[in-house]
Every structure is written in C-alpha cells, then in structure tokens.
Amino acid sequence: MAATVEHVMGMPILVDVRDDVDLLVLEPLWAWFRWVDATFSTYKDDSEISRLGRGELELGAADPAVQYVLARCETLRRETRGYFDVQAAGLLDPSGYVKGWAVDRGVALLEAAGLRNFAVNAGGDIWLAGGALPDFDWRVGIEHPHLPDSVAAVVQVRDGAVATSGAYARGDHVLDPHTGEAPADLVSVTVTGPDLGVADAYATAAFAMGARGPGWTAHLRGRYEALTILADGRVLSTAGFPRAAL
C-alpha cells in the first residue's frame, strides 16, 4: 500500500494504491497524463486545443483523441441542453470533460497492469477502484460549504467515479452559458457513476442550471446519481445516490 502525487495537467493528482505492488507500475499513467496536458492544455500555446482555438489547426488534422473528445463534448452539450458547453466563455476549452476522461483512460492502464484496489484523485474528481483495503468500500467526504473542516455527506463507492462542481472552493468559475452569470441557488453538485468524464460534465451542467439542477439530475440515466447542496444549506439527493452515514 502506498500513495504518490504529481502536479500535472495544472493540478495535483494523487494515486492511492492498496495493492502490494511496486509504484514503478504507475509510470505509464504519469506519462499518459503528461501527454494529455501537452495536447489539451489551454495554457500551452502549442497544444492542439490552443491551435484549434486560434484556427491554426483543422479538426480533421488533429489527433484522433482530440477529435473523439470534442465529439463527445458536443453530445454532452446537446444532452445537457447547452449547460455543458466547451465554448461557453467564447474560447475552446474542453477541460470540464478532459480531466475525467483522462482519468478514465488512466484507470484502464492501471487495471491492465494488474492493479485492482486504488483511487485516482485529480483535483477533487475521483475514480475509486475495488476497495480501500482493508475496508471493502471507499468513503469520500463532500466538503461542507459553511462549516470549515466538516463534511456535508459521505459517499460510499466501489468501482465508480465521484465528481463535484461548486463555487466554494474556486469561486464563481462555473457560469450559466445562456446568461453568462454564476448560479446563486446552489453551492455544489456531486455526481457518481461509471464514467468520470461524464460525471464531471453532468456535475458542471447541473451546477450551471442553478435551481433547475436538482430536477434535471433526478432524471439521469445510466447509473448516474447526484447530490446537491443548496445555498440555504439543504442537501438533496437522487434515490440511488450512494450516501453513507456520517
């Protein structure tokens, strides 16, 4: 059992391995994250995403992974009625999907290497594989928006993703693409499910919806569940949200 962290893709990424393995097995994972950063970063002038945004690269000439991500983002834009939009700020920025997608692909690398019980935490969005040995499940606390060092809820997950979008950690960084304003009714939205990229996009969209978010998440399909913390402190969750006792 061991944990290691690297700063890549503009954030700390923590890998907590509960199997008895040499941490050298993680090297392909870190190499993958560095490739994703070089290809998709909006802060690197020579990344393919930056070049696409400036019109210096045609989509058809981009890496197949870039073409896939942007096509997936367009599907998610339609599915969320435009509340998840990679061009909401007027610039091409698929980061809201790329982070989770990169972790999903990285998890596949670790599983191919024989790992079964581990967690990958990318800036607060997490994939949890197997169990937190010696515990059977993983338990993840959702930060309380008004009480420092407290949690509002605990998620109990085995082989699944947990993504949270909110304003209390990074300020008003999620805006309603239709109005350009930050939602005032919600503090955070957490989505669990089988795919971290999709869960992250859903959480972002539901948060951007404001008061309409809980109604939208109530109809999520494909084993996705949501927990919403309202500005007045109320906590709402879908029927199947894997919430554990505090």
Polypeptide structure, described:
The structure is a single chain. With 246 residues, the chain is α+β, with helices and mostly antiparallel strands. It has a single domain (2-244), classed as ApbE-like domains (T-fold, Roll), CATH 3.10.520.10. 29% of the residues lie in helices and 26% in strands. It contains six helices and eleven strands. It has helices at residues 27-40, 48-53, 64-79, 95-112, 196-208, 213-217; strands at residues 2-8, 11-17, 118-122, 125-129, 138-143, 151-157, 160-166, 186-193, 225-230, 235-237, 243-244. The strands form two sheets. The chain has an eight-stranded antiparallel β-sheet. The chain has a three-stranded antiparallel β-sheet with strand order 5-6-11, with no helix packed on it. A hairpin with a 2-residue loop joins strand 3 and strand 4 (125-129). It starts with a strand and ends with a strand. The model has no long low-confidence stretch (mean pLDDT 93).
By CATH reckoning, the class would read Alpha Beta
Biggest β-sheet: strands ordered side by side in the sheet: 1-2-3-4-7-8-9-10
Number of domains: 1
Distance between the termini: 26 Å
| Mean pLDDT over the residues | 93
Large-scale geometry? globular
Strand tally: 11
Largest sheet, if any?
8 strands, antiparallel
Q: Whole-number radius of gyration?
A: 18 Å
The fourth-level CATH homologous superfamily is ApbE-like domains
